[in-house]
From TrEMBL:
<dbReference type="GO" id="GO:0003677">
    <property type="term" value="F:DNA binding"/>
</dbReference>
<dbReference type="GO" id="GO:0006281">
    <property type="term" value="P:DNA repair"/>
</dbReference>
<feature type="domain" description="OB">
    <location>
        <begin position="186"/>
        <end position="257"/>
    </location>
</feature>
<dbReference type="InterPro" id="IPR013955">
    <property type="entry name" value="Rep_factor-A_C"/>
</dbReference>
<keyword id="KW-0479">Metal-binding</keyword>
<dbReference type="GO" id="GO:0005634">
    <property type="term" value="C:nucleus"/>
</dbReference>
<dbReference type="InterPro" id="IPR004365">
    <property type="entry name" value="NA-bd_OB_tRNA"/>
</dbReference>
<dbReference type="Pfam" id="PF08646">
    <property type="entry name" value="Rep_fac-A_C"/>
</dbReference>
<keyword id="KW-0862">Zinc</keyword>
<dbReference type="InterPro" id="IPR047192">
    <property type="entry name" value="Euk_RPA1_DBD_C"/>
</dbReference>
<keyword id="KW-0539">Nucleus</keyword>
<comment type="subunit">
    <text>Component of the heterotrimeric canonical replication protein A complex (RPA).</text>
</comment>
<dbReference type="InterPro" id="IPR007199">
    <property type="entry name" value="Rep_factor-A_N"/>
</dbReference>
<dbReference type="Pfam" id="PF04057">
    <property type="entry name" value="Rep-A_N"/>
</dbReference>
<feature type="domain" description="Replication protein A OB">
    <location>
        <begin position="296"/>
        <end position="394"/>
    </location>
</feature>
<dbReference type="GO" id="GO:0008270">
    <property type="term" value="F:zinc ion binding"/>
</dbReference>
<dbReference type="InterPro" id="IPR012340">
    <property type="entry name" value="NA-bd_OB-fold"/>
</dbReference>
Length: 610
DNA sequence: CCCCCCCC
């Protein structure tokens, strides 16, 4: 007999109430379930090759087929008659598929294997467009003793996924996506994708400690939390990346406010909870932790609070900072890293707690982060570790080795996009203003500086006085006085040093389509502009005019989006309007065109001005 | 039963 084709995707339709005639499905498992009566009932795990459904039952008149071994694993069947029915509480119930007439098309021995890589229909249905048909009118309510809410039953041996001899019988595990508070006889086989540190709490309702972890299998993900005794019992056993069998946890609705996982429920460990490490050779079917690595430059285009997986070199590492939260009065420790990657972008990543304390960034390791959150402030976006985030230092993956090679060969010297740079002025968006309009509108004449952005081209960068020798102390950029004896004196620090650091103070002319202006760049932007460190620029200007000339002329006639600070300043008795470059970034044409289209609409009155 | 991750 040729192997029959499954009616791909039909389970999602059926479980949405559609009456599809004679669907062809594969049986992936069949188990006797407990009922509160002596009546024998069989539960089926059915697949259509795309989705599976573990909420299927065999009508008792068909039990004989199972006794004869006709419905073994992998059997392909045609459902000649079936119905669906809601069980469980009003509004929160599950739809159960009840099979009343069935024809075997291919025996399990003939088929031998699972067809396709089915996922749970509940998960998949959210992204698929499933036509919503009227519920099947023929569905009769399932009697309680026939439903799965058989929690009072003592005889575990016949349950699907039973607990045997104190170890977890994993021959047929439940998909995470099928877990619900209405059914607690299950074993899941799941990979731990993240684990929090142990945290203590103390409030009006009591005190205690806990840790939580995120679990994942092919069907979905769920958060699990272990309190107090369970926290102590399981904390060391649980390792991120390992696969375990879990059973006997309590399910409850997830508070979406606190969890970004795609699951309506979350689990709490109980005194009965069992956790057992799964051998590596038995891990099949449990996906590896997936990193959707995005280039750092792309973070600029993402929304506040979005999750980011990325990889970069820790180019700079900040000091450990300790502070007390004003809202909670709790003490926090944090450390900020600067990550760079081959998109020539840099972003700040904040580590917390022990991860911040123990971090050693001086070796400039490769940092891989999963599930970090975007925090937006004044137009800059930075990343922060939070619940569910994973940090890996020097992970052994090709991307990491590639980055290492890139960075060790000077790759990180040409950072052009500062994702975390703030535009200042306290506003989240910077107005687009042309250079001419900035003059006409007298920007910068108020008490506070004005900030605006424009697209402009670099005309010429002045080499004269492009750098100065500054105090070598961190956080002091004051110009030093060369005392002529190998000592450099800083008036602010009131000290002399044998060394100094170069700082940039670059004047250049930029132009947009309306006008041109001289603007000033300080070191951070200047390094970005010239694609060399202040040290290299200073060295070249002092010792190597040809190299300096190339550095300065290379960027002529290149266009950027400039974010500018505009302020009137007094020079003696003269007031001059001064423009300082806050940041410059390559032109994001998608964003820039949006701005142009908006202006066109406003100008012409055609279309809404958004 | 937690659910805090500040500030600019």
């Amino acid at each position: 007999m040729p192997i029959a084709s499954l009616t791909t995707g039909v389970i999602a339709r059926i479980m949405h109430g559609e009456d599809v005639p004679q669907p062809v499905l594969q049986i992936l498992g069949i188990k006797r379930i407990n009922t509160n009566t002596d009546q024998e009932r069989f539960r089926l795990l059915m697949s259509d090759g795309k989705y599976y459904n573990s909420y299927a039952m065999l009508a008792s008149q068909l039990n004989e087929m199972q006794h004869k071994g006709l419905l073994n694993e992998n059997t392909i069947v045609r459902l000649d008659k079936y119905m669906t029915s809601m069980v469980g509480k009003e509004g929160s119930g599950k739809r159960v598929l009840i099979v009343t007439e069935v024809t075997v098309l291919n025996s399990g021995d003939e088929v031998k294997t699972k067809i396709g890589e089915p996922v749970t229909y509940e998960n998949a249905a959210k992204q698929d467009t499933v036509p919503k048909a009227a519920p099947v009118t023929a569905s009769a309510p399932v009697k309680k003793e026939q439903s799965y809410n058989n929690n009072n039953n003592n005889n575990n041996n016949n349950t699907m996924n039973s607990t045997m001899n104190g170890t977890l019988n994993a021959s047929l595990t439940h998909p995470i996506a099928s877990l619900s508070p209405y059914q607690n006889k299950w074993v899941i086989k799941a990979r731990v994708t993240s684990k929090t540190a142990i945290r203590t709490w103390s409030n009006a309702r009591g005190e205690g400690k806990l840790f939580s972890m995120d679990l994942m299998d092919e069907s979905g993900e769920i958060r699990a939390t272990a309190f107090k005794e369970q926290c102590d019992k399981f904390y060391d056993l649980i390792e991120v990346g390992n696969v375990y069998f879990f059973s006997k946890c309590q399910l409850k609705p997830a508070n979406k406010q606190y969890s970004q996982l795609k699951n309506d429920y979350e689990m709490t460990f109980t005194g009965e909870t069992m956790v057992q490490l799964c051998d590596e050779d038995d891990n099949g079917g449990i996906p590896e932790i997936k990193f959707d690595l995005i280039p750092i430059s792309q973070v600029s285009n993402m929304e506040n609070k979005e999750a980011v997986d990325t990889i970069g070199i820790c180019k700079e590492v900040g000091e450990l900072q300790t502070f007390t939260s004003r809202t909670t009065n709790k003490e926090f420790k944090k450390r900020e890293l600067t990550l760079v990657d081959m998109s020539n972008a840099a972003v700040t990543l904040t580590l917390w707690g022990d991860e911040a304390v123990n971090f050693d960034g001086h070796v400039q390791p490769v940092i891989l982060v999963k599930g970090s959150r975007i925090n937006e402030f004044n137009g800059g976006k930075s990343l922060s570790m939070g619940g569910g985030s994973i940090l890996k230092i020097n992970p052994d993956i090709p991307e990491a080795h590639k980055l290492r090679g890139w960075f060790d060969n000077g790759g990180g010297d040409n950072i052009s996009t500062m994702v975390s740079a703030r535009t200042g002025g306290g506003s989240f968006s910077t107005d687009w203003v042309t250079l001419k309009d900035a003059r006409i509108r007298n920007l910068g004449s108020g008490d506070k500086p004005d900030y605006f952005q424009c697209k402009a081209v670099v005309h010429i960068v002045k080499q004269e006085n492009a750098f100065y020798k500054a105090c070598p102390q961190t956080d002091c950029n004051k110009k030093v006085v060369d005392e002529g004896n190998g000592q450099y004196r800083c008036e602010r620090c009131n000290a002399a040093f044998p060394n100094f650091k170069y700082r940039l103070l670059i004047n250049m002319s930029i132009g947009d389509w309306t006008s041109n202006r001289w603007v000033t760049c300080f070191s951070e932007v200047g390094e970005q502009l010239l694609k060399h460190s202040a040290q290299e620029v200073g060295d070249a200007l002092e010792n190597d005019p040809a190299t300096a000339e190339k550095m300065f002329s290379d960027i002529n006639f290149s266009s950027y989006i400039f974010k500018l600070r505009c302020k009137n300043e007094m020079y003696g008795d003269m007031t001059r309007n001064k423009l300082t470059v806050q940041s410059m970034s390559p032109i994001n044409y998608r964003e820039y065109n949006k701005h142009l289209i908006k202006e066109l609409k406003e100008m012409t009155g055609i279309g809404p001005a958004n």
